[in-house]
Amino acid sequence: MTISEQELEIFSRQLILKEFDEKTFNYIQKQHVIIIGMGGIGCAVAQYLLTTGIKILTLIDNDKIQKSNLNRQILYSIHHVGKAKVKVAKKILNGINPECKIKTIFQKINGKNIKKYLYKPSLVIDATDNWHTMNLINKFCVKQSIPLISTSVIGFDGQVILFKNIKENHLCLNCIYPNKNEPNLPRCESIGVIGTAAGLTGLIAAQTTINFFTKHIIKNILIIISSKSMKISHINVKKNSGCINNSNKS
Ligand SMILES: [Zn+2]
Fold first, then answer.
1. Cα of 170 to ligand 1 centre, how many Å?
2. What is the value of pTM for the model shown?
3. What residues have their beta carbon closer than 5 A to ion ligand 1?
4. What is the pLDDT along the chain (250 residues), one digit of tens a residue?
5. Element (H, E) at 150
6. What is the spatial distance between Cα 56 and Cα 54, in angstroms, rounded to a whole number?
7. Domain spans, the chain
8. DSSP run (H or E) holding 5
9. In angstroms, what is the span from residue 58 Cα to ligand 1's centroid?
10. CATH class in words for 18-236
């Protein structure tokens, strides 16, 4: 096994599982995951990806830590207030597995830099909370055929969906939410959010990522997490032939 002695100890309980044989675990360790947005979902998804064997991570966020983040952004503490989220996250995550290769980008993703920063990853996780950025990431991942996990959380509820972005089988975020203009979405700043809902959403996104890499995925479902009712629901989603990102349309 190419895994180090130290990692063999860290992941010893997981490696007992028959689903994580040498070949599968080595494959997981070679995957490059980019997380955009290191808020409540981003913190949880990063921590659980790393503790499940993902070793190559890029973290993108341009925010600094505030006290109001601490109810849900579990990688940060009161001593980190004022520091860049990506830098602190890298330090904490490397404390769990020092052998991880974590790249940090203290920038906001935009139309100009997306090509440079989202360069050929294995999968992108969108944990931003901004409709414009979500659409931009979605469009880029469709065009470049990059698998994308789109996430959101508000109040007690979260959503996770995987888009495999296979060229000949188009299904994307815009197929499901074909809003031409930015919708007037409720935001955490005004509606509020419970830390556990952000954490659950991040956990489901992490498991979706691992399932994708280990080929244990359920096709074309939107996962709705309702922390108050303790329900996780699946909604079947279909491609939209009128989607602006459809490859048949120019
Ligand atoms: Zn679409």
1. 6
2. 0.95
3. 172, 174-175, 243, 245
4. 688 999 999 999 999 999 999 899 999 999 999 999 999 999 999 999 999 999 999 999 999 999 999 999 999 999 999 999 999 999 999 999 999 999 999 999 999 999 999 999 999 999 998 889 999 999 999 999 999 999 999 999 999 999 999 988 889 999 998 877 666 666 777 788 999 999 999 999 999 999 999 998 888 999 999 999 999 999 999 989 889 898 644 3
5. strand 148-154
6. 6
7. 18-236
8. helix 5-10
9. 26
10. alpha beta
